[in-house]
């Protein structure tokens, strides 16, 4: 039997989650604050991403119970739906995966590089779900 895992699960929007701003393709300018340094982790809209589906809570430190099979992202999504998701699951889950428009980072790496749903979680992993679609 696999031991319980402690995993950090975070939900949010693409803006303000510690991701460097992308360079403007037309002007070549980067987002900056006073002092001219690259802007990291500042959010113009503190709430408005995927965290709204989770009672506005962005970060969750969760302990996944021990089970026969290793924990993977597919199992984590089922657990999240049962234990954390408070409303409108259709805005977060589609089939056995996340909806298009939700970027998943595992330990700051794109999940597509790590096997997506089949990635086996390790103790102390960090999984970040970023909503890249915003209303205007």
Automatic annotation (TrEMBL):
Residues 1-44 are annotated as: Disordered. It is found in: Cytoplasm. Pathway: tRNA modification; 5-methoxycarbonylmethyl-2-thiouridine-tRNA biosynthesis. One of its GO terms (cellular component) is cytosol. One of its GO terms (biological process) is protein urmylation. Its main location: cytoplasm. Keywords: Cytoplasm, Isopeptide bond, tRNA processing, Ubl conjugation pathway. Acts as a sulfur carrier required for 2-thiolation of mcm(5)S(2)U at tRNA wobble positions of cytosolic tRNA(Lys), tRNA(Glu) and tRNA(Gln). Serves as sulfur donor in tRNA 2-thiolation reaction by being thiocarboxylated (-COSH) at its C-terminus by MOCS3. The sulfur is then transferred to tRNA to form 2-thiolation of mcm(5)S(2)U. Also acts as a ubiquitin-like protein (UBL) that is covalently conjugated via an isopeptide bond to lysine residues of target proteins such as MOCS3, ATPBD3, CTU2, USP15 and CAS. Component of a complex at least composed of URM1, CTU2/NCS2 and CTU1/ATPBD3. This is Ubiquitin-related modifier 1. It comes from Tupaia chinensis.
């Amino acid at each position: 039997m696999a031991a319980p895992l402690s995993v950090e699960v975070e939900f949010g929007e693409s803006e303000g989650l510690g991701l460097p701003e992308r360079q403007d393709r037309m002007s070549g300018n980067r987002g900056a604050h006073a002092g001219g340094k690259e802007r990291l982790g500042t959010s113009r809209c503190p709430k408005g991403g995927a965290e709204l589906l989770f009672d506005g809570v962005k970060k969750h430190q969760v302990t996944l119970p021990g089970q026969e099979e290793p924990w993977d992202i597919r199992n984590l999504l089922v657990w999240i739906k049962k234990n954390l998701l408070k409303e409108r699951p259709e805005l977060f889950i589609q089939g056995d995966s996340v909806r298009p428009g939700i970027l998943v980072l595992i330990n700051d790496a794109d999940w597509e590089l790590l096997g997506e749903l089949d990635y086996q979680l390790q103790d102390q992993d960090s999984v970040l779900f970023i909503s890249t679609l915003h209303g205007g």
